[in-house]
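Data card: per-record layout.
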Amino acid sequence: MKFIKAGRSETQGAFMAPMMDVVFLLLCFFMTSQLFAQWETEIDVQLPTAETGQLPQRAPGEIIINLRADGTPVVNAQVLDEAALSGLLHRVSDLWPGQPVLIRADRATAYEHVIRVLDACRRADIWNISFATAMPDAP
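The structure for this 139-residue chain is written out next.
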């Protein structure tokens, strides 16, 4: 018969099953977020071309603001007015300071619409802003 002595405790090791569950959930999260980011760039926007443009390293959680030719902002496949866009940017800035924003403006978009979005980002204290361009067609 085995008696357990009082005051003596066995050291507990790290449990592998919960750790593997967490890693699996993180993997699922990042795979899903990558899929949504890929859908966001498929919106019908004709980007302007730039010879010096590079394929950017996408930041996780990056907000993509698409500007249609008429200047209408679209975020996550939702058409937003100026107040809704400003509210979204303020919420994002409050929750995640330093959140990156990518502006994808159509090549036919008037410059004033791009400046309006930049101004909304500045009012929300978002400073990490980049612009999307397309590579020129090969001759």
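Known properties of this structure: The chain has a mean pLDDT of 80. The helical segments are 16-40, 82-95, 111-123.

See the next section for split statistics.
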